[in-house]
Design goal:
Blueprint: H1 4-12, H2 17-49, H3 51-56, H4 61-77
Helix pairs in contact: 1-2
Length: 79
């Protein structure tokens, strides 16, 4: 996997601009996708850890089952 900096450097040098721009945006989309996944995971953990939020909004049985599942996974992974 190429590094965005090296691709950008090639673009500024005018080397094979079309292919390098395509490669740059492909790499960029990958980085953005991974960042979005990480952000989602961190937000989910924050919400899950807020017991007051879960009790206050009186989540349905599905929400409670989800929390139990996450707890089971957490214990299994030793998090």
């Amino acid at each position: 996997m190429s590094d965005l900096r090296s691709i950008a450097h090639k673009i500024t040098k005018g080397k094979n601009e079309s292919d390098n721009w395509n490669q740059f945006f492909t790499e960029y989309k990958g980085y953005v996708g991974r960042l979005a996944g990480t952000q989602f995971a961190l937000n989910l953990v924050s919400i899950m850890m807020d017991d007051h939020l879960w009790q206050e909004q009186e989540l349905s049985g599905i929400g409670k089952e989800f929390l139990e599942f996450v707890g089971t996974c957490e214990k299994a992974c030793h998090l």
